[in-house]
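User: structure tokens for this one?
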Amino acid sequence: MRFEAVMARASRGLCLAKLGAFGEAGDDFELARKGLRGLSGEQHDEAASLLGLNEGWMLGQLGEPRAQEVLTEGLAIARKSADALLIAKLLDGLAVVHCDNRQIDDAVRLALEAARIAMRTGNPSLTRLTNVTLALAYLFHDDRTDNAATAVHTACQQPPGHQALAARAVEGVVEFRETSPPRGPRSTPPAPKPGCGSIAHPGSSRSSTASVSLSPDCSCPTSRTACREPWTCTRRLAGSLRCRVPAAGPRRSSPC
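Assistant:
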């Protein structure tokens, strides 16, 4: 398979995954992976990195443990080819997976590296993407709201474009956290009260419920009561704005 055909399969797979056609997307990724065998040098590295990014995103959507392995493999190849854009996107994707797995220290480390690379490239869309992820990772730490505020401020300073709404959504959550009264020990959040909105969990194909500012005293980021699971609620809110997928599929920010 020619280089162009492999790249087309990897890109088409991502488009299908965004539409919720995960089976067809998986077929395209498999064909692209087979096509890599006929490539070498820079072409192989570029195609393999892109494939790792796109397939890793889809696997993360489905909550597949293999997502981390695929993204890590793609990152290793991208580092070898010194492709800054792909490196930053793969680091960002890995940070999201680590956050979903509640491995927050690793998530912050990866997201911080991704944000620094994005700033060096001068790419506004990538800078916004990586700083939103970094802010979300910091939000999971009760004592790192200031860091989250700095990251989301950087994201919101970028020119209007893709994922700008997600940056503003996270900015609102950060501002709420900064003005919230001190919270007690973390505990299991209560079930949402009637009247709260429901959004599919962005990291799983299973349906779950998140409160989104429709009830004044529900346990969610935008309610009057401080949320005890900021990552879960915030990720759902931002994910719903960053990537729109049909109701049949889960939601999460896409790598593009």
